[in-house]
Design goal:
By secondary structure, the chain is an alpha+beta fold. Strands 1-2-3 form a three-stranded mixed β-sheet. Strand 1 and strand 2 form a beta hairpin. The longest helix is centred in the C-terminal third of the chain and has 21 residues. The protein is globular and about 65 Å long.
């Protein structure tokens, strides 16, 4: 039985693996870049461009990392040329992914709501009038 995964999805997953490996091992970048993670890759339908979404484990470090990676985008593309046997190697641009930060904020809000509900249970008026 064939997988329902499309060719574009397989290519995006391959790019995620390759970009992660290139950032960690092939580029000469500061040690703080080891904490970067490639969260998502959007490949254009004609496979000419790839938007690489990255996030950093430390707050406030993603912006400078994205700037540095965009400055080295040609080097990253050159590394891809050596790894992939595709006809077209996409032009690379890096984008800050704040989905992890938004997820943590949402979890914090949910936990705050559940704490207020357990701390202030509604008094039962029927029991007080008896």
């Amino acid at each position: 039985m064939r997988s329902k995964e499309t060719r574009m999805e397989r290519m995006s997953k391959q790019l995620i693996r390759d970009f992660s490996d290139i950032i960690r091992n092939d580029l000469k970048l500061p040690e703080s870049f080891k904490l970067l993670s490639v969260t998502h890759v959007k490949l254009s339908p004609d496979q000419s461009t790839a938007k690489v979404y990255v996030s950093h484990l430390k707050d406030g470090e993603t912006g400078p990392a994205v700037t540095a990676l965009n400055a080295r985008a040609w080097d990253v593309r050159e590394q891809l040329m050596h790894r992939l046997s595709w006809r077209k190697i996409p032009t690379v641009s890096f984008v800050e992914d704040d989905s992890l930060k938004r997820g943590f904020e949402l979890i914090r809000k949910i936990e705050g709501l559940s704490r207020t509900e357990t701390a202030d249970p509604a008094p039962d008026n029927d029991a007080a009038s008896r």
